[in-house]
Amino acid sequence: MRTIASPLMQFLLSLPRIAAGAPVTRSAPVPRTMTDARPAGRGDAAPDLGELDDAALMARAGAGDRTAFNLLVGRHGTRALRLALRVLGDPAEAEEVAQEAFLRAWQAAAGFDPARARFTTWLHRIVVNLAIDRTRRRAPLPPAGLEAVGELADPAPGPEAAAVATQARAALALALADLPPRQRAAIALAYEQELSGAEAAAALSISERALEGLLRRARLLLRSRLEGS
């Protein structure tokens, strides 16, 4: 699978300094966390951005700090790409969706409220919505995701075990491709991204009960497809 970090980092270099229409303020430096301001008298040295949490980096991004936003891309770009790939099945489309998701995140950075949602939940929601919307505007899902399957092989298996594992993963990828987009997204969020039920439900903008229903239907369909193959 292609990595999103380098292409998207280059892409971000062409972004405007701040979202269109959002005022750029020159307030005091953002503290290391959203609630823990740096004590006075310790000098004016800037904190190490790599040590800041996602919320603090988004606060800096909202003030126009592209470096802070690039760090968020580095942390979460691959996860966003994997999620888009699982819903769309096509690597090129998945990369486009991931790039669009980060562009929207950059443009909305000034309005991001960490009290309402974690950055990752907020980002996952953007990716899922963009990916599902794209599935509605194009032909049925291609049998992709298979490009990424080979990278998931166990380290140094024997030839026979490797062949069996590859065949099993290919069958699973094809079965996942037959699921409706929202069920694929639910599977990806709950099992591949390993989000909690509350986080996965929030990313899909549904209740936890509705998420359980999506996952149950997805598992039944997967079992049916895999037993049939």
From TrEMBL:
This is RNA polymerase sigma factor. The keyword Transmembrane does not apply. Residues 170-221 form the RNA polymerase sigma factor 70 region 4 type domain. Residues 24-48 are annotated as: Disordered. PROSITE patterns: SIGMA70_ECF. InterPro entries: RNA_pol_sigma-70-like, RNA_pol_sigma-70_dom, RNA_pol_sigma70_ECF_CS, RNA_pol_sigma70_r2, RNA_pol_sigma70_r4_t2, RNA_pol_sigma_r2, RNA_pol_sigma_r3/r4-like, WH-like_DNA-bd_sf. Keywords: DNA-binding, Sigma factor, Signal, Transcription, Transcription regulation. NCBIfam families: sigma70-ECF. Residues 1-19 form the signal peptide. The lineage of its organism: Bacteria, Pseudomonadati, Pseudomonadota, Alphaproteobacteria, Acetobacterales. Residues 72-139 form the RNA polymerase sigma-70 region domain. Pfam families: Sigma70_r2 (PF04542), Sigma70_r4_2 (PF08281). The keyword Transcription regulation applies. Belongs to the sigma-70 factor family. ECF subfamily.
